Amino acid sequence: MKANDSIVEKSFSFSKKKTKKEFNSKSFLGKFAVYFLLIAVAFTCLLPFYSMMVTSSHANSDIARKLLLVPGSEFIENYKRLIDTVPIWRGFVNTVFITVTSTVLNLYFSALAGYGFSKYNFKYKNLLFLAVLGTMMIPGQLGIIGFFKLMDSFQMLNTYWPLILPSISNAFGIFFMKQMCDSSIPTEILESGRIDGCGELKIFHRLVLPLLMPSLATLGIFSFIGKWNDFLTPMIVLFDNELQPLPVMIAMVKSQFSTDFGAMYVGIVISVIPILIFFSMVSKKIISGVTAGALKG
Amino acid sequence: MRTSSINKSKYGFYFVLPYFIAFLIFGLVPIIFSLYLSFTKWDGFSDPVFVGLDNYARLLKDTFFFKAIGNTLIIWILSIVPQLVLALALAMILNEKFIRGKHFFRAVFYFPNIVTPVTLGVLFSLMFDWQTGSVNKFLMGIGLIDDPVNWFNSPWLSRFIVAGVIMWQYFGFNMLVFIAGLQSISEELYEAARVDGASKWDIATKITLPLLRPVLLFTFITSVIGGLQLFDAPLMLGNGPDNSTLTMVMYLFQTAFQRFDYSYGAAIAYAIFIIILFFSLITMKFSKMNKVEQ
Amino acid sequence: MKKWISVLLASVLVVALFAGCSNSESANASNDKKGDSNKVEGKLTIWTFFGQVEDMAKEFEKKYPDAEVEVKIFPGDQYQTKLLNVLQTGRDVPDIFDLERAYIDKFINSKYAANLSDMGAEALLKDYVPYVQALGRDSKGDVRAVSDHSSPGGFWYIKENAKKYLGTDNPDEISAMVDSWDKIIELGKKVNKDSNGKVHLISHYGDVYNVEAYHEKPWVKDGKLTIANSWKKNYEIQKEIFNNDVDAKLEFFSAGWGNAINDGSVVLNAMPAWAGFMVDNKDNSANDKYGLAKTPKGFYMGGTYRSIYEKSENKELAYKFIEFITSEEWQQHNLETTGNMPGLLSVYEKNLETFKTPMFGEQNILKPYYESVKEIPGMKSDKYGEEVLSKWRKVAGQGIKDNADIDEVIKDFKKEVQNSFPELKVD
Questions:
Q1: Fewest Cβ atoms closer than 10 Å to its Cβ: which of A59, B245, C7, C183?
Q2: pLDDT in tens, C102-122
Q3: Cα C355–C356–C358 angle (5° rounding)?
């Protein structure tokens, strides 16, 4: 028995030593490998964007024939051809407008409903909350055909209303804000507000919303990205070119310039670069927001 | 007289009311209306005519729809598996203390996620164009191939490319989710393991992964719902040879909004809904069973 | 920094808000157009996917100074969806809308397109290219859409290239060398051998469809799909073209195809007359570079048609516009400025000996186009034609690549057709 034990002990300590030693000698190599992986992945993340920028500055004949590694001088020419038919900057402005207004609506009403579910007791509250959760299961395309016909009868086709108003009903946002209110809004604050004679809505605006700011920022990022990428709905409900958001314009560029690769690349560059700049300025905020959102959601 | 707290409680109802009104108008009514349309014949040029279950009967015989279901599942699996593996590996690496430039790497890995899928679809369709795309030029440049590869001429290559684009776009997001999960694991656990002399590998497989399991499952379930609705990026990459990259939602879109068969499109939408529901329930059941076992 | 961004954002929003709200109120702007019958005034709205319509509008305004034409251009393939959407809703509908040949049928057989025959359009089309005027007719034979141009095609070749591989750059000689597919296959084998596989005679086996498609009988007759024997013959021809590398395997309107026109890797490019913009003509480098030969049969490709909205409040003015674009005056102008081929035979005939473009040097290119355009049979478009054809292209194209048997192709083809059109009988 004893001998057995010692053997086990010995072999254990031996293997332990060995791994430690190996680790030391290998630690440089290990780190190297890890960094190599990181850099390789980072490279594949950025390479398409680099390639896109370089290619956009060359003439079509060169794009068709050569591998392009350095920028050329045809960007302006390509840009002019693109701008001639597709008002892409207009699309950019439209997207910003749609996205910002929808996000604001989404945040406000999500916070309001989340707060309502969290801090008040009303009839059928639990049932209603379950109903909200249930709607999260419905895929977006289910009602799209009926949506189109309905917006027609509301005379809302070719306006931004069908894109913006539905942002009021965001089930995920309500779920998320309810969790946030549960954990970060102390009921005492509400009581003190009531004692000061504030109305319920005023309490929400003056006391609750400021406390919810960090969570709103997180939800805002999700909502913003989702809306920014919205493609199917605007393509269906908007007719006027001038009103189209960026993703639809890019799709338009693709079918319009089927053989004009220079112009197409310029279109892509225009749709990516501003986001790239914006992202590199506030990436810390966005990433911590997404991380926080992922954890809570 | 009622007490103040009961009095106030009706405000809660008012606060949640806007959601239900908006959902009713922009969510529920269109869904019900779509259901009605799926029982009609309507091409947009004339008024809908009630035809009963004709559209659904047609759907059951529609080999293209079944093909689209298959394509969607294949592309989803091709993209989700490597995506989660890569995201997990990177998350664990970036959670190590010795790594420098963590923020930089996180930001770079996450970046593809915020670029519009339509843009990515167009970008990749250009890069993989067999005559003019940079991928072929590059591969020929380094001597890996002699003749350009016609990527979108092979069903499987096309699917791999579509799956690759999706994976490329979402691994960064999943990585952030995993990092969040990792950060919630208590440092003391690791400390204790290290004192016990556990190797890094042991820590990863015996502590980190089991504790990360709920996060992994959550990601998996949400990706079922998202993955089965694949649309924008594949649309830009095209149907592929023999419709090999035609996804369910693409088929819905093309039927309803390009061939103007609105009523059949509505039936397809309902079929997609049932399929998504089916797969979500399976994954949820599966994940619950796992929990019980533990 | 942050402040700067928010200011920018805010101003952007304001701009967007104003612009977003001020959308089209134009369509119904002019209700009171009825003055005395000689004066042409009022405001028209035209929807199109085709940029050159702007020039058309300008010329129209020049002729009728009191009229105003607003052109809205919708580039890309979403145009027809948008058009149908707006027609359904009945608001902000344009007075005139453009239709592409590929989907014209659905629209002209709907209640949205006005009957132009009733308005006198038959007289305008008396001297028209047969196929052009036939395509704008609905199933009853009434004119509901007209085009101002024809779009014949031919083999475009770089003269130098032709001399090198075909031994001549004379258009008539070349036309005679390639007046049948058998000759093309033999010649293509030779070109392929002479150039060590670097140069091909034609760009794609699909040229066979492009040329043959509109010489065939309709795909669907009395609710039944009929596959003409000639399609089976064409399939074998295409297989032979593909397998012998007669073609460069560059699909129509792909990037490589566009490139081949310029760099000469394809000797004979089957091109529609309107595709001159594909030629790289920087610093007039393409002047006198090209020649034009006839394809085995006359073919055309595409075509933009114009319909009047049935409920338009400006029908009279809209009809004036239709009258204008079918006139010699406009079509002569259009030929001179853009090189688009006319729809009127008389305009062809007037310019036969005189019309020249820099690209083709001294060649009278109207001649080969005129000859082929006349021989294209006039056929009404039907609901199925284009879509069934595109399915055939797709299935047969796949079959050619896989070297599949024709029976297999036909089986797959029937499956595809049945799937899209369950109401058709396929067997």
A1: C7
A2: 889 889 988 999 999 999 999
A3: 160
Rounded CA-CA distance C200/C422 in Å is: 41
Which of chain C's residues have a Cβ under 8 Å away from the Cβ of A61?
Answer: 259, 262-263, 280
Q: Where are the domains of chain C?
A: 31-150+303-351, 152-300+370-420
DSSP C102-122: TTHHHHHTSTTB--SGGGTHH
Asked whether residue B92 is assigned to any structural domain, the reply reads: yes
> CA-CA distance, A47 to B127, in Å (whole number)?
11
CB C416 within 8 A of CB C388: no
| CA pair distance B50, A235, nearest whole angstrom | 28
C419 touches chain B (CB under 8 A): yes
Spatial strand order in the sheet of C42-48:
C67-73, C42-48, C96-100, C304-308
The conformation of residue C341, written as its DSSP 8-state character, comes to P
B160, B78 contact by CB (below 8 A): yes
Please compute the mean of the pLDDT values over residues C362-369 and round it to a whole number: 89
A49: which 2 tokens? Answer: 């964007």
CA of A1 vs chain B CAs: smallest distance (Å): 24
- Residue C220: pLDDT above 50? yes
DSSP C218: P
Exposed, middle or buried: residue A24 (CB in 10 Å: 0-12, 13-18, 19+)?
Answer: exposed
Report how far residue C384's alpha carbon sits from residue C389's, in angstroms, rounded to the nearest whole number.
Answer: 8
For every residue of A162-173, DSSP letters joined together read HHHGGGG--HHH
Q: How far is A221 from chain B (nearest CA, A)?
A: 10
In degrees rounded to 5, what are phi and psi of residue C137?
-95, 145
Count: domains in chain B: 1
Q: Is residue B235 part of a domain?
A: yes
- What is the Cα–Cα distance from C391 to C370, expressed in whole angstroms? 30
> Average pLDDT, stretch C201-211?
90
Query: pLDDT by residue (tens digit) across C237-252?
Result: 999 999 999 998 888 8
> Could you give the CA distance from residue A21 to residue C26 in angstroms, rounded to a whole number?
81
Rg (CA), chain B: 24
Give phi and psi for A44, each to the nearest 5: -65, -25
On the question of pLDDT at A297 being above 70, the answer is no
Tell me yes or no: is domain C152-300+370-420 CATH 3.40.630.30. Answer: no
Q: Which pLDDT tens digit goes with each residue over C304-341? A: 999 999 999 999 999 999 999 999 999 999 998 888 89
* CATH number of the domain where residue B101 is located: 1.10.3720.10
Q: Tell me, what's the ipTM? A: 0.82
Minimum Cα–Cα distance from C399: chain B residue: B242
- Full set of structural domains in chain A with CATH: 2-55 (no CATH), 76-296 (1.10.3720.10)
Domains C31-150+303-351 and C152-300+370-420 share a fold: yes
Which residues on chain C are in Cβ contact (under 8 Å) with B258? 81
Share of chain A above pLDDT 70, in %: 89
B103, part of any domain: yes
- Cross-chain residue pair A241–C74, CB shorter than 8 Å: yes
Contacting residues for B174 by C-beta, under 8 A, at least 6 apart: B83, B84, B87, B219, B223
Distance (Å, whole) CA B64 – CA B239: 12
What band does A25 get if pLDDT is binned at 50, 70 and 90? low
A232 pLDDT above the threshold of 60: yes
Please state which CATH class domain C31-150+303-351 belongs to: alpha beta
B109: domain range? 55-293
